UniProtKB/TrEMBL annotation:
Short name of any one Pfam family annotated for the protein: MFS_1
Membrane association type: Multi-pass membrane protein
Domain Major facilitator superfamily (MFS) profile stretches: 17-475
Keyword annotations: Cell membrane, Membrane, Transmembrane, Transmembrane helix, Transport
Protein's name according to its UniProt entry: Major facilitator superfamily protein
Species this chain originates from: Candidatus Planktophila sulfonica
């Protein structure tokens, strides 16, 4: 064991560091779902039209997804603790602004600002964990905590969003972040250690411009596909622009001396496989929350709060199995956890295809949620670890950002793709079953959801195949390369 690792085991603040990072991670994950349930109330208060309501969510995801790579690099170069603090304070201010927004424009702007600061915060948080924990068993536990939050946070967001909207005001769905972020910043000043990349710290400006614009166009193109269809002119235009910009970006990264996204980060097979796996998981899982939430509220008639609580078994499963995964990871390595985990989660999604407007929540939804969450917990924890496998200190932030970016892009792609699938299946079913009369729409909509679940399951099974062929590190390799980010 190296001296660095020995010193690290004696550092009494490392678990407190994890606590601070965990708070910030929870806040970022919550914010991707907490506003979903608050939208109807915010629409009435601020006079937001149906056409514009998507911007409550999209303003956040667009800014977050397109700026993550830059955010990761800024943390590497300027200091991860410093940028972590800037992210927290900025996030607190943007949330407060959203909480007191008097117009829809101000609400959308505050959500975009939240996304900007989240793009600084998320990569810095993961990079801090990677640099702070160098002992394999401890690092697995630390990533276990972050993985559990990433997996269960969205469901917690739905519960918190429902509770605050029903008993206080939709404004608190934003305002609640401000005291949490300020508390995390105060604790971070004391317990988080500064770390930054050594060597050449110049910015790759052409790379920044092409990557940010390319990721923005890609996310916006998928969003347009979800709302206006794949054949609409804006969808095709933005996706075409995205492809051109991202090809130019890769060409730039091959030539510049200090690239924004060094190709060595993604061409290493374990990290590359992790990002691809993360993209597929993001696409498959995001749709589950979306369509199951609609089924519970529109078809079964659950209130927003009740439908939030209906996701609790998923959160519970993630938390329980995250603990098991973090114990097993140093013993068996990542692949024996991730591949069966994705297959399990896919089976859970396939079980959801049995729902109809007449089936019960406890018999048809709960078993699926438990199977899915147990599988996903076995994926999230090792995936976070393999995405940072053997990465140098210089690239820790940008490798962390790449994991977040692939999840964001996956979520946008999944929503766009599966919305189309569900809508087409619903229309076809309704046209073919006119004899059902008034009952046709609930059955047609549910049929649309179940077809989307089949596609989601197929995505997760595809992810299992990707990880089976890409991931080739065993537990020995994890042990040897842990702490590589410190040297």
């Amino acid at each position: 064991m190296s001296k660095t690792v020995q010193d690290q085991t004696l550092d009494p603040t490392r678990w407190r560091t994890l606590f601070v990072v965990a708070i910030s991670q929870l806040m970022i994950v919550l914010d991707s779902s907490i506003m979903n349930i608050a939208i109807p109330s915010a629409k009435i208060d601020l006079g937001i039209s149906d056409a514009n309501q998507q911007w409550v969510i999209t303003a956040y995801t667009l800014a977050f997804g397109s700026l993550l790579l830059l955010g990761g690099r800024i943390g590497d170069y300027m200091g991860r603790k410093k940028i972590f603090l800037v992210g927290l304070i900025g996030f607190a201010a943007a949330s407060a602004l959203g909480g007191i927004a008097s117009t829809q424009g101000l609400l959308f702007a505050s959500r975009a600002l939240q996304g900007v600061f989240a793009a600084l915060l998320a990569p810095a948080a993961l990079a801090i964990i990677s640099v702070t924990f160098s002992v394999p068993s401890e690092r697995a536990k630390a990533f276990g905590v972050i993985g559990a939050i990433s997996g269960g946070g969205a469901a917690i967001g739905l519960i918190l969003g429902g509770t605050l909207t029903q008993y206080a005001s939709w404004r608190w769905c934003l305002g609640v972040n401000t005291p949490i972020a300020i508390l995390a910043a105060i604790l971070a000043i004391k317990f988080v250690h500064e770390s930054k990349a050594s060597g050449d710290n110049t910015y790759d400006i052409p790379g920044v411009i092409t990557a940010t614009a390319g990721l923005f166009s890609l996310t916006y193109g998928f969003n347009e596909a979800a709302t206006k269809g794949w054949s609409s002119t804006p969808t095709i235009a933005f996706l075409a622009i995205a492809v051109v910009l991202l090809i130019v970006f890769v060409a730039i990264e091959k030539k510049v001396t200090n690239p924004l996204m060094p190709l060595r980060v993604i061409t290493e097979r374990n990290r590359g496989g992790s990002y691809l796996g993360s993209l597929v998981v993001g696409a498959g899982l995001f749709s589950m929350f979306l369509f199951l939430g609609l089924y519970l509220q529109v078809i079964l008639g659950f209130s927003p709060l009740k439908s939030g609580f209906a996701f609790l078994p998923f959160t519970a499963g993630i938390i329980v199995f995250a603990g098991i995964a973090s114990q097993l990871l140093p013993k068996v390595g990542p692949k024996p956890l991730m591949v069966p985990g994705l297959i399990f989660a896919g089976i859970g999604l396939l079980l959801l295809t049995r729902i109809t407007p007449e089936t019960a929540y406890f018999t048809h939804v709960v078993p699926s949620l438990l199977i899915m969450s147990s599988g996903m917990a076995l994926v999230f924890i090792p995936l976070t670890s393999t995405s940072l496998h053997g990465v140098s200190n210089h690239d820790t932030g940008v490798a962390s950002a790449m994991l977040n970016t692939s999840q964001q892009i996956g979520g946008s792609l999944g929503t766009a793709l599966l919305n189309t699938v569900a809508a087409t299946a619903t229309t076809t079913y309704a046209a073919a079953n006119t004899e059902l009369g008034k009952a046709v729409m609930p059955f047609a909509m549910t049929h649309g959801f179940t077809v989307a679940f089949k596609f989601s399951a197929a995505l997760l099974f595809a992810g299992a195949v990707v990880l089976f062929f890409f991931i080739n590190i065993g537990k020995e390799s994890l042990v040897e390369t842990e702490g590589a980010g410190l040297h």
